[in-house]
């Protein structure tokens, strides 16, 4: 009766039905109700703006290259700089989310990196171009706050969907900018500006968009269903955690490291392709700048449905097969993506390359959504840092791939794409080693010791912390994550008094 009463109260308080943590149990994409769906829309729009800014340069590279006398190595280094800046920024963003909340962490980073986008307009050398791309790339760390925010707002049953759509629609910026920047450039050029002036003025558009999105997140967003971190800490409703403890439980959880590796070869590959694909079609198939931009845009625009599709697929298979289904689906989809990447590097006609790229983009981006269908369950206490580690892994993968295959003239671009596909396949294999004792893994079922969700998540809290009640949020999360058992929800034991024996 008490639980029914609390659920009834929660239903009256929020526009969406919620669980015991007040996380939404339904995802209504056409709603903008506060706080759940408003947070969703603010997160993906702000992340979208950062993607537009970070990848505003590639579609205009043929013009920028001539203006700044950039060599192939200069362009490769700038592309690497754009994605390397966010490696440590994403880990830092995860920590900031754990300690200060996603609203403040996200808005601060977006606003701090906006000046780099403005400064691109006055870049006059290879070094200055590299630097502005490097500092602009820091903004991609907002991906972590996006995924953390969605995991804080939506329950286990729909968290894969929420993460997938928010991340996917944000990533759309990587495709949209391939259309936006050539169009803006053409309009400014037709008005009367020279080519070398038009590309500079064009950068003011993504810069202003990014700055405005930062203010929207800060003034309209909310960290958690029950309020912002500052007020929850002040009222005592939320424990103000210790950074060293949060960091320790993240870095000692091997599951996070494996997901970081595999994410490096789905999202990392996506970043790499965003950097190289327009120039690849321009140089290899001799299409014009506008056509190359449209072809390249189609890769990123597939995020409209592909990454969300991966998140939705993760939730669907989890209903029947639980966490084991999420992991298996991730391995299958990402491996197929690797095979398609190999094919993209092998085909020699324009039409076949476009088809291979489009199909590859669907599987590559769906794997990203599937990854973050599993990430929220790795740790409750260190969710932010685990998200940051995984997101940072994406950037590390992009950096390594570009350094090895697309920097300078050691490999032709098509050969580099083929080898990148082989790396995807190899780096996806470790998924089979991820194992949750309460749910099992890709190859093995749950532990025969009868361990529960409470056993798993309570290990992150000391006896003293539990005596002070700091673990209560993890207890609620453990109860709500029982759906990860799949159809065998009743097969694992649950402590009668709700308190596990550690």
UniProtKB/TrEMBL annotation:
Q: Which GO terms describe its biological process?
A: nitrate assimilation; nitrate transmembrane transport
UniProt KW keywords: Membrane, Nitrate assimilation, Transmembrane, Transmembrane helix
Any stretches that span the bilayer, and where are they?
A: 42-63, 75-92, 104-123, 130-149, 169-189, 201-221, 327-345, 351-375, 382-405, 417-436
Q: What is its main location?
A: membrane
Cross-referenced InterPro entries, in alphabetical order?
MFS (IPR011701), MFS_dom (IPR020846), MFS_trans_sf (IPR036259), NO3_transporter (IPR044772)
Q: Where is the Major facilitator superfamily (MFS) profile domain?
A: 39-439
Q: Any coiled-coil ranges, and where?
A: none
Q: Which Gene3D superfamilies match?
A: MFS general substrate transporter like domains
A Pfam family of this chain: MFS_1
In terms of CDD domains, this protein maps to: MFS_NRT2_like
UniProt-annotated stretches for the region Disordered? 474-502
Q: Which domain of life is it from?
A: Eukaryota
According to its record, how does it sit in the membrane?
Multi-pass membrane protein
An example of a GO molecular function for this protein is: nitrate transmembrane transporter activity
* One GO CC term, this protein: plasma membrane
Q: Where is this chain's protein located in or outside the cell?
A: Endomembrane system
Q: Which family does it belong to?
A: Belongs to the major facilitator superfamily. Nitrate/nitrite porter (TC 2.A.1.8) family.
Protein name (record): High affinity nitrate transporter 2.5-like
Kindly list the organism's lineage: Eukaryota, Viridiplantae, Streptophyta, Embryophyta, Tracheophyta
Q: Which gene encodes it?
A: LOC107796634
């Amino acid at each position: 009766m008490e639980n029914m009463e609390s659920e009834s109260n929660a239903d009256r308080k929020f526009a969406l039905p919620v669980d015991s943590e007040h996380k939404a149990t339904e995802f209504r994409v056409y709603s903008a109700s506060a706080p759940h769906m408003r947070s969703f829309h603010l997160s993906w729009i702000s992340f979208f703006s950062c993607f537009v800014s970070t990848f505003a340069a590639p579609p205009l590279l043929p013009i920028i290259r001539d203006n700044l006398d950039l060599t192939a190595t200069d362009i490769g280094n700038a592309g690497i700089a754009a994605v390397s800046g966010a490696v440590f920024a994403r880990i830092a963003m995860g920590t900031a989310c754990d300690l200060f909340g996603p609203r403040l962490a996200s808005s601060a980073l977006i606003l701090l990196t906006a000046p780099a986008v403005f400064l691109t307009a006055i870049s006059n050398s290879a070094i200055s171009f590299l630097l502005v791309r490097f500092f602009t790339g820091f903004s991609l760390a907002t991906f972590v706050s996006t995924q953390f925010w969605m995991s804080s707002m939506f329950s286990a049953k729909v968290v894969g969907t929420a993460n997938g759509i928010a991340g996917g629609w944000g990533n759309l910026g990587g495709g949209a900018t391939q259309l936006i920047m050539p169009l803006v450039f053409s309009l400014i050029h037709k008005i009367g500006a020279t080519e070398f002036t038009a590309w500079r003025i064009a950068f003011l558009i993504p810069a202003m968009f990014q700055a405005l999105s930062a203010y929207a997140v800060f003034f309209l967003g909310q960290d958690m269903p029950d309020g912002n971190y500052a007020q929850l800490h002040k009222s005592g409703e939320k424990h103000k955690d210790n950074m060293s403890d949060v960091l320790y439980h993240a870095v000692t959880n091997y599951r996070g490291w494996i997901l970081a590796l595999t994410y490096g070869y789905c999202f990392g590959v996506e970043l790499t392709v965003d950097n190289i694909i327009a120039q690849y079609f321009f140089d290899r198939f001799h299409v014009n700048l506008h056509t190359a931009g449209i072809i390249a845009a189609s890769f990123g625009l597939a995020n409209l449905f592909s990454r969300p599709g991966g998140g939705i697929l993760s939730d669907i298979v989890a209903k029947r097969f639980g966490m084991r289904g999420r992991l298996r689906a991730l391995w299958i989809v990402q491996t197929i993506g690797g095979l398609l990447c190999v094919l993209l590097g092998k085909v020699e006609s324009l039409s076949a390359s476009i088809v291979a790229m489009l199909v590859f983009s669907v599987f590559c981006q769906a794997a990203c959504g599937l990854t973050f269908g599993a990430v929220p369950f790795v740790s409750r206490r260190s969710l932010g840092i685990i998200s940051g580690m995984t997101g940072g892994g994406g950037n590390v993968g992009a950096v390594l791939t570009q350094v090895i295959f697309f920097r300078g003239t050691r490999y032709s671009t098509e050969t580099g794409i083929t080898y990148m596909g082989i790396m995807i396949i190899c780096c996806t294999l470790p998924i089979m080693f991820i194992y949750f004792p309460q749910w099992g893994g890709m190859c093995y079922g749950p532990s025969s010791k009868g361990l529960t969700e409470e056993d798993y998540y309570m290990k992150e809290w000391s006896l003293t912390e539990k005596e002070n009640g700091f673990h209560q949020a993890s207890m609620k999360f453990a109860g709500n994550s029982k759906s990860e058992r799949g159809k065998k929800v009743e097969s694992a034991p649950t402590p009668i008094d709700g308190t596990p024996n550690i």
